[in-house]
């Protein structure tokens, strides 16, 4: 989901020696490949820039330049692969560029604008420009070294490839925090969309199978009672009484459904009262402690509520606990939640109890989810959410 940052200290080759080991031969192969690879890259980007700039006054100039930049991205990906294979660099791929010609969601002009200001592609262009003289130099020195400087060639190759490593890291690696953050946000957006779609399907299913089916039966029952009202008043009264019971059940189902969307007690009285209400429905006694001087934003408050609600449902269904506790407090700019129980433990993020879904939902809003549940218990779940006060939204 998220991109990691290159760790230079972890991918350094062993110190150069007079003996020729596999690292030395890989470095020599890399240096000998520099010239043909640099020549191809230089010719491509020079032609792309010249053609795009020359034709920029026409309708095809900027699209051609955008396509050329897309090709520069491919060159950069090829160079990263070569550096991984021959220089041992641990370097990640930048986040992908969104949009393409004719994309039904983006359109041509958004794609064009995004492509023309793509920093990854422009860094690849710069890399290809400066590589030609460097490729000539490294190819010549390495070729001469193979016949003249054989004893010291491993040291020469190490020095030259270290410069190559610096160029690759400086121009072709993801741009640190920004690239990683973009990748995280892209992944989190997918989680949010999937979660919202799943919630809508659940609400639709609950309405269709619950209150809607009951109201349909109620309408039919009242219709029969109306027909019998004059012929058999006693039977009609029984039917009306049954319909009255059905109305009560339908109302309760609708209240439960509304509580599952956003409970009124949470809106009116905040987390303390809402979590106490949830705790009262747990099969184990639950102590609730909410230490908040002010209320967080509604969205954060809602996520906190449903997180605790689902965790207490797991306590009821799986934990076989004698007691549980819920603690909620604020620490600087974070809202912290801790749910503990003295049950049998053994809960896992991949155990099918909904823990992984909770972790994904919290991660989608820059939250954290930590599960500690050894076999035999106790289970401690700690969740963190970013604090946003109501005045901040």
Q: What report would you give on this structure?
A:
It is a single chain. By secondary structure, the protein is of the alpha+beta class. 64% of the residues lie in helices and 9% in strands. It has a five-stranded mixed β-sheet, covered by helices on one side. α1 packs antiparallel against α2 (61-87), α2 (61-87) crosses α3 and α9 runs parallel beside α10 (298-319). The two termini are 28 Å apart. Mean pLDDT is 79; it is low at 1-9 and 99-105.
Tell me about the biggest sheet?
A: 5 strands, mixed
The number of helical segments is 11
Total number of beta strands: 5
Number of domains: 3
Record the strand order, biggest sheet.
1-2-3-5-4
- Shape call: elongated
Q: Which structural class do the helices and strands define?
A: alpha+beta
Mean pLDDT: 79
In whole angstroms, the N-to-C terminal distance is: 28 Å
Order of helices and strands: HHHHHHHHHEHEEHEE
User: What is the strand content?
Assistant: 5-15%
Helix content: 55-70%
**Which regions contain 5 or more consecutive residues with pLDDT less than 50?**
1-9, 99-105
Radius of gyration: 32 Å
Please give a handful of descriptors for the protein shown.
Single alpha-helices involved in coiled-coils or other helix-helix interfaces; single chain; alpha+beta; 5 strands; five-stranded mixed β-sheet; 393 residues; Heat Shock Protein 90
Layout of strands and helices, then pairs:
Blueprint: H1 22-54, H2 61-87, H3 108-116, H4 119-147, H5 153-172, H6 176-231, H7 233-261, H8 264-269, H9 271-280, E1 286-291, H10 298-319, E2 324-331, E3 334-341, H11 355-363, E4 368-372, E5 379-386
Parallel strand pairs: 1-2
Antiparallel strand pairs: 2-3, 3-5, 4-5
Helix pairs in contact: 1-2, 1-4, 1-5, 2-3, 2-4, 2-5, 4-5, 6-7, 9-10, 10-11
């Amino acid at each position: 989901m998220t991109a990691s940052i290159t760790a230079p200290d972890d991918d350094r080759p062993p110190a150069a020696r007079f003996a020729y080991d596999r690292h030395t031969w890989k470095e020599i192969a890399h240096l000998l490949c520099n010239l043909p690879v640099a020549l191809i890259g230089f010719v491509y980007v020079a032609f792309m820039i010249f053609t795009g700039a020359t034709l920029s006054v026409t309708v095809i100039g900027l699209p051609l330049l955008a396509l050329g930049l897309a090709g520069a991205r491919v060159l950069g990906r090829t160079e990263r692969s070569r550096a991984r294979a021959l220089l041992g660099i641990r370097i990640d791929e930048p986040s992908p560029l969104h949009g393409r010609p004719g994309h039904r969601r983006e359109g041509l002009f958004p794609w064009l604008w995004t492509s023309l200001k793509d920093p990854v592609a422009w860094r690849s262009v710069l890399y290809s420009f400066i590589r030609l003289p460097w490729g000539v130099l490294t190819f010549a020195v390495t070729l001469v070294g193979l016949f003249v400087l054989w004893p010291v060639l491993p040291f020469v190759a190490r020095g030259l490839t270290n410069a190559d490593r610096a160029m690759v890291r400086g121009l072709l690696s993801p741009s640190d925090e920004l690239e990683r953050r973009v990748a995280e946000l892209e992944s989190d957006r997918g989680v949010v969309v999937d979660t919202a779609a799943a919630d809508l399907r659940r609400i639709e299913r609950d309405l269709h199978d619950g209150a809607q089916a009951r109201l349909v039966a109620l309408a039919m029952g009242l219709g029969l009672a109306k027909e019998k009202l004059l012929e058999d008043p006693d039977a009609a009264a029984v039917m009306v009484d049954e319909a009255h019971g059905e109305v009560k059940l339908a109302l309760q189902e609708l209240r439960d459904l509304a509580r599952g969307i956003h409970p009124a007690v949470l809106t009116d009285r905040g987390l303390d009262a809402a979590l106490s209400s949830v705790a009262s429905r747990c099969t184990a006694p639950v102590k609730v402690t909410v230490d908040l001087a002010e209320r967080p934003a509604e969205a954060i408050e809602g996520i906190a509520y449903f997180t605790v609600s689902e965790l207490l449902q797991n306590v009821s269904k799986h934990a076989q606990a004698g007691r549980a506790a819920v603690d909620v407090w604020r620490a600087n700019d974070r809202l912290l939640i801790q749910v503990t129980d003295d049950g049998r433990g053994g809960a896992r993020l991949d155990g099918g109890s909904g823990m992984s879904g909770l972790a994904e939902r919290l991660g989608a809003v820059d939250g954290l989810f930590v599960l500690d549940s050894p076999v035999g218990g106790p289970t401690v779940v700690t969740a963190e959410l970013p604090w946003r006060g109501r005045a901040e939204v």
